[in-house]
Design goal:
This protein is mainly α. The chain has 2 domains: 13-92, no CATH class; 96-244, no CATH class. It contains 12 helices and no strands. Helix 6 runs antiparallel to helix 7, helix 6 (104-121) packs antiparallel against helix 12 and helix 7 (125-137) packs parallel to helix 12 (209-220).
Length: 244
């Protein structure tokens, strides 16, 4: 791994403790809306950001959500955790993504659609949670790679509709590493669970449903966030995309 990229990962701001508390709560299976609200209220800035994201066009809710309890009841803990992660990611992707020719809105649409696709592919609640969180976050490492490329005066051109798995190959060619390798470092730095880290490191082996699901997700979701279902037709899980 290129030393300057490792250094950038080490300098990332930590994921808020509230996010880890919410993730732990999900695994406990014993919580209610008041418990979730109690954790969120520890971080007023995060509450404000969650409400902002919940009301954004990306999630397309019909009426304005003005209270965090309302958001919790409407969306549930899994979605609230995604909103909290999106709040963190939104601060990171305010940086330059010119290397990839996309803006922050397209990036967030890509992350949100990866989570959406991934959630349709696995039925088990806890496995789905691991998969959707991993899918949502696994390309945030492009922020680091874009910074490195800018500093190193490296550039390449890719089409907006390129599949993310194909883009990994181009990153390797030009940058000597790819988004998945860097994301694995980021997940470790953020103290995410071993299940997420292992899935990220192994999914291209495609030896089980979780690996296949993450691979398929990154195959059908494009760099700019558009979903191209036809690219997943060879996958044994492809029929589940019909639910989208």
């Amino acid at each position: 791994m290129i030393a300057s990229i490792v250094e950038k990962v080490e300098k990332l701001p930590p994921v808020p403790n509230v996010v880890h508390e919410l993730q732990d709560m999900f695994y406990m299976d014993s919580y209610n809306a008041a418990d979730i609200e109690s954790v969120l209220r520890k971080d007023p800035n995060l509450v404000a950001n969650i409400l902002k994201i919940a009301n954004s066009p990306l999630y397309g809710f019909a009426r304005e959500i003005v209270d965090i309890r309302q958001a919790i009841v409407l969306f549930g803990l899994e979605q609230i955790i995604e909103f909290a992660l999106a709040s963190y990611v939104d601060n990171l992707v305010s940086l330059d993504l010119n290397l990839y020719g996309i803006d922050s809105m397209q990036f967030m649409r890509m992350a949100q659609n990866k989570s959406k696709v991934a959630s349709t592919l696995i039925q088990d609640k806890k496995a789905r949670f691991i998969l959707s969180n991993t899918a949502f976050l696994c390309d945030v490492s492009k922020v680091i790679l874009a910074q490195y490329a800018d500093e190193s005066q490296i550039a390449f051109h890719v089409e907006h509709d390129i599949a993310l798995n194909a883009l990994d190959i181009i990153e390797q060619e030009y940058l000597g590493t790819d988004s998945i390798a860097v994301a694995a470092l980021m997940f470790d730095a953020w103290n995410f669970g071993e299940a997420m880290i292992e899935l990220l490191r192994s999914f291209k082996e495609r030896q089980n449903d979780m690996q296949e699901a993450l691979y398929l997700t990154r195959e059908v979701v494009s760099l700019d966030g558009t979903i191209v279902k036809e690219r997943g037709e060879e996958s044994p899980l492809a029929s589940r995309l019909a639910r989208l």
